# Entry
Amino acid sequence: MIKTLISFLLSLGLLGFAVSNIANEGTIAFVGATIIDGTTAPPLENGVLVITDGRIRTVGSEADVSLPQGTQVVDVSGKYIMPGLINAHGHVGATIGLDGNGGYSRANLLRQLGLYARYGVTAINSLGGDQVEGFELRNEQFDNSLTRARIYVAGSVVVGDSEQAIRAEVNRNADMGADFIKVRIDDNLGASEKMSRPFFEALVDQAHKRRLPVAVHLYYLDDAKFMLRTGADVIAHSVRDLPIDQDFINMMTASDTCYIPTLTREVSTYVYESVPDFFQDPYFTKEVDSAIIEELSTPERMSGVAGSRAAQIYKAQLPVAMDNLGVLHGEGIRVAMGTDTGPPARFQGYFEHMEMHMMVDAGMSPLEAIRASTGTAAECIGMGDIGSLEPGKWGDFSILTENPAADIRNSHSIESVYISGNLVPTE
# Structure
């Protein structure tokens, strides 16, 4: 019925507007696409997605959905709709180009959030380095006028030389309105001292007193087990030193802790020892300053990466991280997409797609990787009004020309992105 109405209106010239001209005014219906909703449900062919004032009103088949009078109708027949991607572990803030201290400012935050959005990444859980401007933008995003990616913030990464100092830092972040508490246990390279276990226990205790979840930067299996026993809520990186064992699997299952593998974080440490293949990918180059590519491609830069102890350690351990992800996913552990993008040469937006591709290479199906990057990611960061295309949630989604459920690399076929039902500007 809806398709017939569309054809009739088109014949009269009443739907002569382009998708790019549609604003979030009242009710908009996207009709005819296959809808991947970010839940465990199979894709819905010939679906209808209805948005009213920025939130999802209805999702269903053409046969089952009746449109309210005055609805703006967008014919997306033959295309695909999926929820906006959610990066459960990223960073937004100071980096400009290859300068990690380029300047934390509202303008730079908005630039980065716009970049994420153009790649279909509609929410980022920024785990550390967040300042006042980030908190302000988080507070401004709960309305129907949004056109950039959402940001959730952790404040500072908690460190301290005493239990008292650590509790005070947790309180400082909590008083600012943090969504998470982030802690770095060990960088495995000796650049910083491992946080003592009593200090970590104090941190978790104080965070939970303030009703905040704890996300942990770690490397070692033994540390991961201790974190779980202590009550950590999210493991924010892969276990990379050893294959995981049944004890760890049992602990993850019992605690229902989320696991964020950040596989592309490992890639970013070593891939520039030569010119990476993705430097030729138009989906990458469309958003990257050519000067950055040139700098990363100099013989001096590549030689430095090839000779980097850190880069080569992480390169060697990436297969362990990949295998561990495959095992945990096979055991039913909740896996959320995260990349640790934001620092220099970890390219925001593009790396989120690379992460999904690597998750499939590690053993997940395309649909499972999409779910890990949408509905499950939202669950893991505690955001119940995003992540899936269900009534009441924000209208954050992408329209694609090719089917990502058939081939995850079709995630690059994003044609347009909507946040709160608003079309994201293309530049």
